[in-house]
Amino acid sequence: xxxxxxxxxxxxxxxxxxxxxxxxxxxxxxxxxxxxxxxxxxxxxxxxxxxxxxxxxxxxxxxxxxxxxxxxxxxxxxxxxxxxxxxxxxxxxxxxxxxxxxxxxxxxxxxxxxxxxxxxxxxxxxxxxxxxxxxxxxxxxxxxxxxxxxxxxxxxxxxxxxxxxxxxxxxxxxxxxxxxxxxxxxxxxxxxxxxxxxxxxxxxxxxxxxxxxxxxxxxxxxxxxxxxxxxxxxxxxxxxxxxxxxxxxxxxxxxxxxxxxxxxxxxxxxxxxxxxxxxxxxxxxxxxxxxxxxxxxxxxxxxxxxxxxxxxxxxxxxxxxxxxxxxxxxxxxxxxxxxxxxxxxxxxxxxxxxxxxxxxxxxxxxxx
Length: 368
Hints:
Elements: E1 2-6, E2 10-16, E3 19-24, E4 27-31, E5 35-41, H1 53-57, H2 60-64, E6 66-71, E7 75-81, E8 84-89, E9 93-98, E10 104-110, E11 133-138, E12 142-148, E13 151-156, E14 159-164, E15 170-176, E16 180-190, E17 196-207, H3 212-215, H4 220-236, H5 241-246, H6 248-260, H7 263-266, E18 268-279, H8 282-324, H9 326-343, H10 355-363
Helix pairs in contact: 4-6, 8-9
């Protein structure tokens, strides 16, 4: 004899010799004569190791105690208990739950297309199996190309998107919508006078057509790079070194204009472009530095001579004024006496002559 106890949150399936007899409630059962009870918990999907759900549903009493939902191919059922989301039931199958004190409801969702219908609440994706869906995050500075089985569908704006995992393959390609910098570094180009220069160039651009730039161009960044290289070579090859160094801005404008002409076929908008550096060969750089030092020294000498001439002219004008005006001469003498006194500790005055005359005698003979 076997004893089975069924609690209040349980039901039991009574079998005799492997055949379903009926469903029993809470209580203590003594079993004999080939009888057995299989216990089923409330709150979980009803299953039996000895018979199918359809066999159980043939029992009208059992059918009255459960809520049943059937999910076909390319469908899932969203299961709610007392109005709260409980779980997602995978595609194809029949499911039953004990009623008891709970109310069960189901929302059938068609997943034949990867697109998630707007009637599906977004919060459930934090609770259902990750294998059922794909999450796609598009940042604020991005746009995304959406593909079904490698066929373009549409552009996704910034945001979070969910797609059902079906037989249709979903993938995306991200495009940066921000202003993007492209550096062209170390381009060695020969000038008209056969000097090899290395030029660093920079270009800022934005993508304008997020689909055609992928479907109609093989590596648009490389295409822009080549276009800038050709424009630089075209310009530098026409001018001598001195002309290029004097007209750096003209070279930037020329290349920028050439890139602007390529906008339509490259599906980008060129915002600005310019030469960052012009690097000369070592020997040419040394020569240029020598020339620069010589020029600066010459400029310094010119300024020194100019100041000396101006100073001499000022002294000459002062001398003429003092020669023509004795009072001005006396004032100048007093000015020098004042300077002497500032640097002399003691002055001894002797004799009957006045002090001013003796001080002037120290300076020099009085001009008659």
